[in-house]
């Protein structure tokens, strides 16, 4: 339960840093509530433990910052439903972890067994060594499961590298199931502190959008605009960022997912998608800007169509509604163009639960719950036209609707 009691959380009043005279973000509470939500989700999914390898899941469970899953398994967490998590950390990094993550008992930090992906050119000896490492890795996990009395239960894994790991887990007689549904359920409903972090991430993204719009001019390149925005956002504390800054004829019939050395011209549209994280929590917000003074009727029609379809779908959202209802409000599509008009959760990764896509929401509707944090995005443009429009908002779901977090204004010239 949150320490805020019956008080309504205030998402846009506090600064970024901890202080002795303001509440702000309570990181102890953040870690405690995330851990409790993960434990409750394990119970709901009838899991004896979760073995978390993906960086967003290890961070959610323990609060320590790992690396995205590459072609190796270097660090991982075994979280028995009956006990606190046990962290398997890489070699000498254990000292750093014990020193910095003081909320984790030292006895719950142990050395990991790194498992590397098998190279295609591996010799028989290398393959055997790889197999042996996998068996050691699985045996270490089994030991923890036995110690906490859950070895005979279903164990959820969020990532398995290859067949040698599967064989090792079978040899250790571990009942492996998919652990991601339990973790996604835990992460889908945000705590008050998570929402505060998401608010700060939105504020950083807004500064990036302002930087791009302020620096637009004929002759500047897409990559230069993105570079200026990146500088702004990093200076405000962004810990990772990616996105697009694409212009003119590159905005239709689909928009590119990168900024290049293309030069911005008069009367170009510019689509920018800001994906930035603060303390691991992400935005995914889109605005379309016009580099001129008098947009054409066609561009205004696209912008109005995109804006209205966006808010038609947003206005369908409230706690208790299912994803198929919201997807029905989105512009029609199929698997050929479904990514143009979608909704998705946001959090420690860019696409979390819920997923709102017409192509499959009807077949697999899920309930939208209070305090889920959602991005909805729409697109408008004709195939024969040179340019198109994309817009996206980020918001928290409330009992009666939503509260928008992405506050950067829309272009009134294109909406009149």
Strand-pairing-aware structural class: alpha+beta
Percent range for helical residues?
25-40%
CATH architectural label of the largest domain: Alpha-Beta Complex
Number of helices, where a helix is a run of at least 4 consecutive DSSP H or I residues: 12
Tell me the Rg in angstroms: 23 Å
CATH topology of the largest domain: Creatine Amidinohydrolase
- Based on the structure, what is the oligomeric state of the protein chains? single chain
What would you say this structure looks like, in words?
The chain has helices spanning 27-44, 55-62, 93-100, 124-147, 163-171, 180-188, 192-215, 222-235, 297-314, 323-329, 358-361, 412-415; strands at residues 49-52, 72-73, 76-80, 86-89, 109-111, 115-116, 154-157, 175-178, 240-247, 268-278, 281-282, 285-291, 342-345, 352-356, 373-380, 389-397, 402-404. With 416 residues, the chain is of the alpha+beta class. It has 2 domains: 27-187, 3-Layer(aba) Sandwich (Creatine Amidinohydrolase, Chain A, domain 1), CATH 3.40.350; 189-415, Creatine Amidinohydrolase (Alpha-Beta Complex), CATH 3.90.230.10. The strands form 4 sheets. A 6-stranded mixed β-sheet has the order 5-4-3-1-7-8, sandwiched between helices. It has a 5-stranded antiparallel β-sheet with strand order 14-13-15-16-17. Helix 1 (27-44) crosses helix 6 (180-188). The longest helix has 24 residues, at 124-147. The relative contact order is 0.11. Residues 1-5 have low confidence and may be disordered.
């Amino acid at each position: 339960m949150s320490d805020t009691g019956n008080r309504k959380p205030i998402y846009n009043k506090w600064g970024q840093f901890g202080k002795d005279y303001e509440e702000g973000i309570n990181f102890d509470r953040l870690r405690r509530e995330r851990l409790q939500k993960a434990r409750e989700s394990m119970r709901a999914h009838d899991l004896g433990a979760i073995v978390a390898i993906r960086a967003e899941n290890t961070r959610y469970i323990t609060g320590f910052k790992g690396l995205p899953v590459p072609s190796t398994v270097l660090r991982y967490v075994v979280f028995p439903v009956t006990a606190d998590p046990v962290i398997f950390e890489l070699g000498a990094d254990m000292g750093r972890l014990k020193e910095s993550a003081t909320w984790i008992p030292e006895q719950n930090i142990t050395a990991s067994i790194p498992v590397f992906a098998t190279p295609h050119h591996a010799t028989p000896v290398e393959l055997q060594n790889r197999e042996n490492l996998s068996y050691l890795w699985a045996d270490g996990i089994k030991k923890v499961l036995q110690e906490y009395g859950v070895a005979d239960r279903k164990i959820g894994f969020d990532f398995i590298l290859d067949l040698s790991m599967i064989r090792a887990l079978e040899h250790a007689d571990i009942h492996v199931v998919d652990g991601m549904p339990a973790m996604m359920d835990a992460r889908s409903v945000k705590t008050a502190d998570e929402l505060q972090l998401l608010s700060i991430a939105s504020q950083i993204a807004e500064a990036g959008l302002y930087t791009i719009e302020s620096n637009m001019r004929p002759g500047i390149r897409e990559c230069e605009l993105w570079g200026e925005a990146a500088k702004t956002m990093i200076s405000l504390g962004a810990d990772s960022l990616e996105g697009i800054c694409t212009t003119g004829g590159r905005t239709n019939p689909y928009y590119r997912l990168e900024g290049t050395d293309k030069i911005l011209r008069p009367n170009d549209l510019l689509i920018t998608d800001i994906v930035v994280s603060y303390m691991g929590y992400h935005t995914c917000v889109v605005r379309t800007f016009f580099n001129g003074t008098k947009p054409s009727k066609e561009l205004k029609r696209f912008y109005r169509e995109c804006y209205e379809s966006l808010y038609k779908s947003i206005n369908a959202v409230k706690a208790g509604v299912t994803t198929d209802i919201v997807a029905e409000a989105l512009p029609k599509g199929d698997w050929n163009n479904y990514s143009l008009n979608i909704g998705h959760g946001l959090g420690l990764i860019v696409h979390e639960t819920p997923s709102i896509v017409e192509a499959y929401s009807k077949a697999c509707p899920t309930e939208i719950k209070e305090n889920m944090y959602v991005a909805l995005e729409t697109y408008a443009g004709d195939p024969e036209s040179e340019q198109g429009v994309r817009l996206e908002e980020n918001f928290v779901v409330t009992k009666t609707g939503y509260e928008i977090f992405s506050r950067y204004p829309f272009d009134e010239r294109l909406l009149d």
